[in-house]
Amino acid sequence: MKFFLTLLLWALLLVLCWPLALLVLIAWPFLWLLSIPFRIVGAAMRALLALVRALLFLPARLLGG
Fold it and tell me: Where are the domains of the chain?
């Protein structure tokens, strides 16, 4: 469903302003490549916060709470 919505929005942009739509089509893979390090950092932070949460709740889990 997300793909079809994206395609519909891009087609609308193509009708309204075709140079901008072509620029988006060309720039999108580069923007995706630039976002990869931020995704990796986000995953690492999520894992670190999950570890901290598990350590904080460990005494309660051991006591049966």
Answer: 2-62
Give 3-state DSSP helix, strand, coil % of the chain, rounded to 5: 90, 0, 10
At residue 65, the pLDDT reads: 64
| Dihedral angle sign, alpha carbons of residues 49, 55, 61, 65 | negative
Q: Is the model's pLDDT at 64 over the cut of 90?
A: no
Quick one: average pLDDT of 36-52? 97
Report the C-alpha gap between 2 and 23 in whole angstroms: 21
CA neighbor of 25 nearest in space, from 12, 36, 8, 10 = 10
Six token digits for residue 38: 């931020």
User: Cβ(14)–Cβ(7) under 8 Å?
Assistant: no
